[in-house]
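Weekly structure sync, notes
Attendees: PL (lead), two postdocs, one rotation student
Agenda item 3: pending single-chain targets
PL asked that the sequence for the first pending target be pasted directly into the notes so everyone works from the same version. It is reproduced below exactly as submitted, 446 residues in total.
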Amino acid sequence: MHRLKINKLGPIDHCELECAPFMTLTGFQASGKSTIAKAIYYFRTIKDDIVEIAKKRCLRKMPGGFVAEPSAYKAMGQARLLKELADHLQEKFLNIFGSSWGMSPEMRLEYYFTDTCSMAVSLKEEHGIQIPNHIWLTFSHELESFLHRNDNRFSVTPLGVAEEEAESFQAEVNRLFDDDCMAVYVPAGRSMITLLSQQLGYIYAKMDDGQRRSLDGCTRDYLERILRIKPEFSDGLPGMAAQAGGTASLPSKTIWQSLSLINKILRGSYRYSNGEEQIVLDNGRYVKINFSSSGQQECVWILNLLFYYLLRQKRVLFILEEPESHLFPESQKYITELIALAGNCGHSIVLTTHSPYVLGTLNNLLYAHAVLNAEKADKIIEESLWLDLGRFRAWFVKDGTIENCMDPEIGMIQNERIDEISKVINEEFDMLLNLQTTDWEDTPCP
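Predicted structure, written out during the meeting:
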């Protein structure tokens, strides 16, 4: 099982956690939930970085190679795969977490993919260079040996890297990292990207490389993914499902259950038509996405991405920040159920949330799995949505660390974590009610 350790990074003072197929992080604002989510994304995408860098190294060897060789490598000849990966991961770290200048010298991230394959990121002072906090990477022996063995993995062909060769190498890397999931990060604050829907492609195309790199790495990945797959929604979600037809290995019941949940959340269906994003209503009319409600704008691409990858049955790690944003409690319940459905279809989930409705729904799905009378429980909550406690973890992020907030006796998220603020509100109301009662009793009769 994958393990993550964080020391002195952002709001996190220290935390250690074992990753699970379905994880939820809850806690106060600025407590460090996003820091943990971004750390998971950083490490879980390294395997794909290795494959892409190996491809580029091969393409540079072609006559008139069309991938520019980094200028820093020209004087030293062909750089080794390990060196190029390290340089890439240093830049990637800064792009995700920001400048290291303000970080504690004790900052350290460690991720264990297996007992023998791991990697760490720390800070080191570079003597003679005006950089107080240089990003320092430490690779496990097994990982370093693998990179050396595959330094020139791909052979040059007139058409570049052969697809079969690339797929074979990806499979080897996946086995080394014990991970065959593609990471899809959905950041918080999605409505602005949706609001600028029609101008987004133009704005992004006009940016130079430096401006693109200045975007937070997770947000840039999200933005580029949307721009890349948006045209595939030209027939809307039902049309996409119909085109998949018998070729999809996903059961038709699951497809239509997904569409039903999406319709309940979105109060319509998404479509990309004539260069504009639309919410198609039940009466056949549509609303342009930039004129839709804030809740629709916040959730539409969570729904689209979940459905898109459900249809393709390619294993994905979904890292979802605050999917409940701007949604009515009923819709929060439905989007949580859709996420659970994706998790039960072979995908992995990392979910950050502030919502007691999301946590309450997760508890219902966990409890439904534990009920002895499965047949009757299925009539209340469909079995396809139930969550297996063995694949689930919940963490409360607070005061620079994390706490396991699962109740071991009942196998659910602790109620006090769900109702912590409700308890305070109710206590204040009781105090005011008692004050009012006391005032009435102390008021003399006329």
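Discussion points:
- Residues 72-78 have pLDDT under 50 and may be disordered.
- The chain has 18 helices and 16 strands.
Action: rotation student to compare against the earlier draft before next sync.
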